[in-house]
Design goal:
The chain is built from twelve helices and 18 strands. By secondary structure, it is an alpha/beta fold. It is globular.
Length: 363
């Protein structure tokens, strides 16, 4: 029976276990979205016992990044700041890939010198954007023109090349959580009537073009994708997600990506948890490569999905915040340290690199 602690081949990456560290936005970058190297080096190296680390979402361009203190991967300074991080993870025996991010309409115009953010269509995200020191309502986005889309694909390619120059073992395309690619996928945010809108085939086109371009550039074994196929996220939803996401997964299977990660939401009702219908079983029928599932897993409830073959591995997000040795804790069935959401995005080391391992607590 497959377990979390069996090795797995994820494209060109040989992972010693099936425990992945999911992407977690944590801030800790300086002006120009340059990672604060000493903090990120310690943070990621502490978690190198994961089978594979997927970094926090990392901006591919200034146009695509609208989160205070989030890192980028488009400038020479950013590449240089990431290099010691990947070196430290590798020295600790780990593997790490960079998640490539374009936020689309979720970039506030304050990050763009007053210019409009871009999206699949002329829409406005609900709620408030985080800008330095405050929150502001999101502003209206404009639809990308067809002639602009090759430039978006080129930005992904440039960022992927930069990631490899910085020493990453590969990249992940962030196609989830209501960001740009997700805005193109879902009919609630994609109102286009051209080659990138309307039919499912058209709405998956941007994802397909980005994935194919990165596979052509890095090789299929270094490229993965994250999708969030069920439920609304940040105002982004679809009226019929099963055919949409099975078509997207089938296309990624054809392209031959290294692995597919799925964040599946679960809802909570008045009388406890009520599961949102899962789409992963449908995706499993068309995607034959390694499939990683994410969201609300612990050391026990992942066993069924691994045993059935629905999942080939599990990515853990928030448990990794306060448990740098999560893989060992899961192996031993040890208690997990609860995290503190109030300091998720603090600017310094507190709540970031000061969580002790089991061994450190025992001393």
């Amino acid at each position: 029976m497959t377990s979390l602690f069996d090795p797995i081949q994820l494209g060109d990456i040989a992972a010693p276990n099936r425990i992945l560290m999911a992407p977690l936005t944590r801030g800790r970058s300086a002006n120009g979205h340059v990672p604060i190297t000493e903090l990120k080096t310690a943070y990621y190296a502490q978690r190198a016992s994961a089978g594979l680390i997927i970094t926090e979402a990392t901006g591919i361009s200034q146009q695509g990044l609208g989160w205070p203190s989030a890192p980028g991967i488009w400038s020479d300074a950013q590449v240089a700041a990431w290099q010691p991080v990947t070196d430290a993870v590798h020295a600790a025996g780990g593997r790490i890939i960079c998640q490539l991010w374009h936020m689309g309409r979720l970039v506030h115009s304050d990050f763009l010198g007053g210019a409009q953010p871009v999206s699949a269509s002329d829409t406005t995200a609900p709620g408030f954007a985080h800008v330095p020191g405050e929150k502001k309502p999101y502003v209206a986005a404009r639809a990308l023109r067809v002639e602009e889309i090759p430039g978006i694909v080129a930005d992904y390619v440039a960022a992927a090349k930069n990631a490899m120059a910085a020493g990453f073992d590969g990249v992940q395309i962030h196609g989830a959580n209501g960001y740009l690619i997700d805005q193109f996928l879902r009919d609630g945010t994609n109102l286009r009537d051209d080659a990138y809108g309307g039919s499912v085939e058209n709405r998956i086109r941007l994802l397909s073009e980005v994935a194919q371009a990165l596979v052509d550039t890095l090789g299929s074994g270094r490229v993965s994708v994250r999708l969030s196929p069920n439920g609304e996220t940040q105002g982004c939803d679809d009226s019929d997600p099963v055919p949409l996401f099975t078509a997207a997964a089938a296309e990624l299977n054809r392209i031959g990506i290294a692995f597919l990660e799925l964040r599946e939401q679960r809802a909570y009702g008045e009388f406890g948890r009520t599961d949102v219908p899962r789409i992963s079983p449908h995706i499993r029928q068309v995607f034959t490569g390694p499939m990683i599932l994410n969201q609300e897993y612990d050391g026990e409830n992942c066993a069924e999905d691994l045993a059935s073959g629905l999942a080939d591995g599990i990515s853990f997000g928030r448990p990794y915040i306060a448990n740098p040795d999560l893989a060992e804790r899961l192996r031993l069935g040890a208690a997990l340290t609860p995290d503190n959401f109030r300091i998720w995005y603090s600017p310094g080391p507190e709540g970031y690199v000061d969580w002790p391992t089991m061994e450190e607590v025992a001393v």
